[in-house]
Structures
1.
Amino acid sequence: MTKILLTGGSGFIAAHILEQLLARGHSVVTTVRSEDKAQRIRDAHKDLDASRLEVAIVPDIARVDAFDEVVKTPGLEAVLHTASPFHFKWTDAQKELIDPAVVGTTAILKALKRDAPGVKRVVVTSSFASVIDEAKTEDPNTTFTEEFWNPVTVEDIGRSPATAYRASKKLAEKAAWDFVKDEKPGFDLVTLTPPLVLGPVVHHFADLNSINTSNERVVDLVKGKWKDAVAPTGAAYLWIDVRDLALSHILALEKPEAGGKRLFTTAGWFSNAEIAKVVRKNFPELGDRLPAEGTKGGELPPKDKVYGYDNSATEKILGIKWKRLEESITDLVKDIKGFGI
């Protein structure tokens, strides 16, 4: 049993990580941004021995001293750093997106080096956004792997919300690797670069309007917004189930051979057209809201119009059998239906 610091514990991905960590016998110190979120986590684990779960408040992860106190928790041996913004709704990308991502990552690494000598591994949640080059998404001669970095710079952030997000993820991840290279702390680093994350929700959300960003497309589908035309899938075309991603974080922490590695965690191709097909098949009662079979839109491009990918190195390390899209979407829609749809 290991004592682990998990940042951003009320988030979509981290909430699944928390449940799996506790199920595997680990003790967890997790951070959230408000007392309200902290109390929800405590209430959800009332039957757990108090020594196995502590919740700390970190209101602003962009502060350079954000994690200074929590890293002093006695007995910490590893850190899973998931706290970072994922949304396209801001007025100042530098202040609201880039700074929280970069400062939040470097601040916790500095604090760990200074005040947490027992920590031997740090796992950071990055994103496929730090990998993918938007200029090559239609190039079949490009194969994205763990070695790729997107070419976006700070100067590009005004181009589009998606470009700004890619910049934030790349800059934060690069800053983490640079810190370990330059500062030589007593811990090693693992980063994960998942693409679109789908699947059921275990964290609290008030209503469907506040569901996590990556699952919004499925909410739109079951609300009837795709009835006449399936929405475009986007440029990524790769996905992973949130439960597999949570397990990937834990295995990245537990497996010695993961140390110093950048992991490309994906279950493979998906499309909005395929999501619509899954929901039509498994939820016929929603039929009047769903696009009929044959409705155009949301398809994968032909193979000569899309990039390739290879995450075999990651699969060799983690040894995970990825969940199928049908299971992921079916479990998610069951959650969505709980809100009366």
2.
Amino acid sequence: MAKIKKEELEQVVAVKNKLDSVVAEIGVLETQKHALLHKVAEVNEKLAEEKKNLEESYGKISIDLETGEYKEIKEEE
């Protein structure tokens, strides 16, 4: 059976190994992304809880997060 040159084979194998490494790295990043998306969901739940607590105390308001000042949100009828 015919073979390619040793140097050519080594070059192809090196490129294939690099590709495998990059694909594995993508897998790691996807796993990290998944974990971070769960954290985002947890933080969003906590934010919704804080908003609910503030609404119970102050009614519907819009808060300036820089100053802490708030304005009432008037519901349209």
